[in-house]
Amino acid sequence: MLPSQGRCVMAESHSISIAIVGSGGAGALTTGNFLLEAACAAGWQGLITRTVGPQIRGGEAAALVRLATQPVECMPDRFDLLIGIDWLNAHRFGAEIEVGPNSLVISDPRGGDIPPVVAAGGARLVEIPIKDMAKAIDARPNMVALGIAGRLVGLSTEDFSSVIEKRLSEKGQAAIDSSRAGFEAGFNAAAELNLGARLARPTLTSARRWLVSGNEAAALGAIRGGVRFAAAYPITPATEILEWLSPSLVKMGGALLQAEDELAAINMIIGASFGGTPALTATSGPGLSLMIEALGLATAAEIPIVVIDVMRGGPSTGIPTKSEQADLNIAVYGFHGDAPHLVLAPQSVGDCLFTTQWAAYLAEALQVPAIVLSDQFVGQARVAIERPADVAFLGQRARATDIAGVYQRYALAAGGVSPMAIPGTRGGQYTADGLTHTERGIPTSGASDHQAQLDKRRDKLDRFNYGDHWATIEGSGELAVITWGSLTGTVREAIERATQDDVTVRLVAPRLLAPVQPERLAAALDGAKRMLVVEQSHGAQFHRYLRAHYDLPGAVRVLNRPGPLPIRTEEVHRAIMEWRA
Amino acid sequence: MSTVDMRLACKPADYKSDVKPIWCPGCGDYHVLMSFTRAFAELGLPPEEIVVVSGIGCSSRIPAYTNCYGFHGVHGRSLALAAGLKVTRPDLTVVVASGDGDGYSIGGNHFLHACRRNIDMTYVVMDNRVYGMTKGQPSPTTEPDFDTALSPGGTGLRPFHPLVVALASGANFIARCFSGEPNETASILVEAIRHPGFSFVEILSPCVTFRPDEKEWKNLVHPAPVAATGDPAKAARRIMTDDGFNIGILYRGDRRPYQPAVGTTSVDVSELEKDFEL
């Protein structure tokens, strides 16, 4: 970074990233949210994610904000500005808030020791007595931090005024006044500082924009797809889906039940769906583990349901608050027996809406459970996006209505999907069963019935035309990066960087992970000679999945790592540059 | 529905399917099936508006033997499945069938919360105090000294008392029946189904194969000497102190059933987006 040169015109940057650190309860996340909302209201784009420990109060917390002139879908390689309201416990995630020599670190001298990993980054360090300043004017330190951040990225006081008022209106005028005072104190304290660059003016768009989290987007996608019942057990990091759905389903004439455990939740939605109501649950790894038996039941009894798994670090309790992509194996292979079902993965915060809506549509169309593999990053990140287009995917189940003669619930119909009678339909009475059954649904242990029903359930998935939504396929070139889920945005940004270096790379990211699409993937990789697989899993689950189901042409390299340290654009870019021709 | 159909639907035989039960000859569950069809006929409900939900075990085979809609789900989760069904389809009559293993062991937690939730459904547990389908292991209601291959010399464990647990957890209707008295059982089932909220009916249903001693139950059962109470404290004392063969309705509560209003949409989906607009 250039040193400040009096009043010369400051350089402009198209992306500036800010980390605000404080012990849990210090309000760092509020600071980050206000900063993002103010910037977005003023026309910029951006996202916020968080890194927090398991404690509700007194643990470590950081708001990680990236502001940009164009939409962004991943975090930066390192942070331009790091503000420590205090450094208590920050050493626990120091590696996640990397700073470099061009970064500015602002620290409260009373806030404890700067974590060694931050100090080692070589950033400029400036001390500001944030807490004392706040105390002197009876304000909260996090609002002082907000003022500092706002000034440094180049926003104006007006940009923040309405956000503070809107967000604190319920707390009363005193809270608003105090926050404004704190903000101004911070804003003024940063007057003599600079980041070396300020955010370039945004590209103004007339599009309607949303500020939304992946969890909220997924919940809305479910409702758009026709879901009207949910049952779930609270679990980090999926709970926001449930908290948004609960009042929203009521408005839509549906309901959400808080179940006594995940075993109940999954069975409740199976019951609701059996009764004709499209239904969903949301959970994370431990809950998905408990749901697997009933997912097999829904597969065998051909009951459509949607399960959103917001993946977190595993196995076991793992790291509940941080992201990983290591539930792929259980989602694809966890069921006992041969149990074909759908597995889908959203590729960005906004795509949580589309993918969940599509999952609800596919589940209903194919009478099968769908697992949506979201993760903590996309689930809990809030991002400014253009309002996602309305898509026509609304769950439409083939129903048996006018029934004459003996109803065959599991008739071996062409295409494998047999019309489903809903309770109340005269003449359609049958017993849905997890036992191997005949076409009528009567339990059997006969070899031919078993074979016929296994064929039926496989064929209905395999013969369906999933269209182009099955994957994101972009670019060309002999080097193909294959990734999935939330890493798609990171890989895309790395490829854009490589393109600036005149390296052409193609991106292939399947949104539909099961059933596998060998012919479509082969077409997507036609002419490619080198593969780079990128995934956030210690065991390289995605690479093994690809190897099991697809013929990957040419030579293959894998960039994989477990959570919670995100795979950065820079690392993917480096891997691409090392792997070109 | 035409008048003719209504009359046809009111015979017990119209609620019975043509599927042949897998139960052993002499099993008490045959009589429970008979009680189900008699109760349904007495209620005059169209079979397509009844759903019988079950888990796993001999007793849980019952849905397919009726001519109603049925769900034979996974082990222990029938109450949860039925809750999701009833909440979204309050128009249906939901009867859940279970056994002492399915209901009190693997499904024990759901039993507590179903009582507590008090959704309008009837829970029938056919208790034979043994795991029949896996050939004779002890269940939560098995006597402590009952000798089996899995627990030689007996479990030494105190049997579970389902009726007390149901009362303490909030069940709104509690009764005990004996399968060998299908008419009486049918009458109680009719009352249980009509009673709003969560009704729990324990049916003593002998396993003649692994518990031949239970053939003696027919000589032990006796009608409850007093009428049902609405006072939980009185009911608790009665249930705790009776001999376990006291047959009849033992508790009738008046808690309001849990049923969210479903089916009426107040907004268009696009309204929900307003939460996110910048």
Task: Describe this entry's structure for a reader.
The complex is a heterodimer of chains A (581) and B (278). Chain A has 581 residues and is of the alpha/beta class. Chain A has four domains: 11-199, Pyruvate-ferredoxin oxidoreductase, PFOR, domain III (Pyruvate-ferredoxin Oxidoreductase, domain 3), CATH 3.40.920.10; 211-386, Rossmann fold, CATH 3.40.50; 398-464, no CATH class; 470-579, Rossmann fold. Chain A contains 18 helices and 23 strands. In chain A, strand 3 and strand 4 (60-68) form a beta hairpin. Residues 1-8 of chain A have low confidence and may be disordered. By secondary structure, chain B is of the alpha/beta class. Chain B has a single domain (3-275), classed as 3-Layer(aba) Sandwich (Rossmann fold), CATH 3.40.50.970. In chain B, 32% of the residues lie in helices and 16% in strands. Chain B is built from ten helices and eight strands. Chain B has helices at residues 3-8, 29-43, 78-88, 100-106, 108-117, 162-169, 182-194, 217-220, 232-241, 269-272, and strands spanning 50-54, 69-72, 93-99, 121-127, 173-178, 198-204, 222-223, 246-252. Chain B has an eight-stranded mixed beta sheet with strand order 2-1-3-4-6-5-8-7, sandwiched between helices. In chain B, helix 2 packs across helix 7 (182-194), helix 4 (100-106) crosses helix 5 and helix 6 packs antiparallel against helix 9. Chain B is globular. The chains are: A alpha/beta (581), B alpha/beta (278). At the A-B interface, strand 9, helix 7, helix 8, helix 9 and helix 10 of A face strand 1, strand 2, helix 3, helix 5 and helix 10 of B.
What's this, in brief?
The complex is a heterodimer of chains A (581) and B (278). Chain A is α/β, with parallel strands linked by helices and 581 residues long.
